[in-house]
Amino acid sequence: MKGSERNYMNDLMVVEKRGQPMTTSRRVAEVFSKEHKNVLRDIEILDCSKEFSRLNFEQSNYRIRGKTYPEYLLTKDGFTFLVMGYRGKKAAAFKEAYINAFNQMADFIKSLQTAKLEFPAFTNAIMLAHEEPKSYNFSNEINMINKIVLGMNASKFKEANGLDKSVPSIRPYLSAEQIKAIEELQRIDIGLIVAIKEYEQRKKILEEYFSNRLLKLAS
User: Fold this and answer.
1) Computed over its alpha carbons, how large is the radius of gyration of the chain?
2) pLDDT per position as a tens digit, 129-141
3) 174 to each of 89, 96, 178, 208, 217, how far by Cα in Å?
4) For 212, how many CA atoms within 13 A lie in the half-sphere containing its CB?
5) For the chain, which residues make up each domain, given as ranges?
6) For residue 112, what pLDDT band results from cuts at 50, 70 and 90?
7) Contact criterion met (CB below 8 Å) for 143 and 154
8) Residue 147: half-sphere exposure toward Cβ, Cα within 13 Å
């Protein structure tokens, strides 16, 4: 995804909550240029079942300057049901963008769940370093390490090795030495993520480490 498109999706604020992508009524109000109180009203008068409402609209709160205000957390289905009645070209564009953002967050959550099984400490470090982790927080880090060790990211590796895009992990297709190198860099990056916020600085340190590692193996 291009940087400008990625930033636009981030502005929609689709985040991970308890293993599923969600947004807030407050953010929907901002994006669709509506007063939040009117979006709250729209949710409360929706003609849906109590069960659907319970599963897709979660009452929550936010704080501004010490005061607490109500809002709702919306699942993709809840969001879709809510904005069905929002009309106009601008609204249609936002609906499409939101659905894409929900789908991208769902893909991120799926990859994150796989990553937690394979690299729990590494994944936890990324989650702790960001108050509301986005998909690129994880993908940037793992892509950086893959590029250092493999010379390409996971997508390019799948393409180069004739693997289907749906393959959840490239780990079974790596050599023992490649896996060992990736795990070493991940262990180092766990500390770097906490200590150094600058991506390029972390990348430089990991590249130097890997280069020295290759020299030692060759000697």
Assistant:
1) 21
2) 766 666 567 778 8
3) 47, 37, 6, 22, 18
4) 8
5) 3-107, 119-218
6) low
7) yes
8) 11
DSSP state of 61: E
The predicted model scores a pTM of 0.49
- pLDDT (tens digit per residue) in 54-89: 999 999 998 888 899 999 999 999 999 998 888 877
Structure tokens at 22: 């969600």
pLDDT of residue 5: 36
Q: Hey, what amino acid is at 15?
A: V
The structure tokens listed for 7 are: 């930033």
Average pLDDT value over all residues in the chain: 82
For 65-136, list the strands marked E by DSSP. 67-74
CB 42, CB 49: distance < 8 Å? no
Q: Give the three-state DSSP class for 72.
A: strand
- Can you point out the beta strands (E) in the chain? 15-17, 20-24, 57-64, 67-74
Token reading at 81:
């049901």
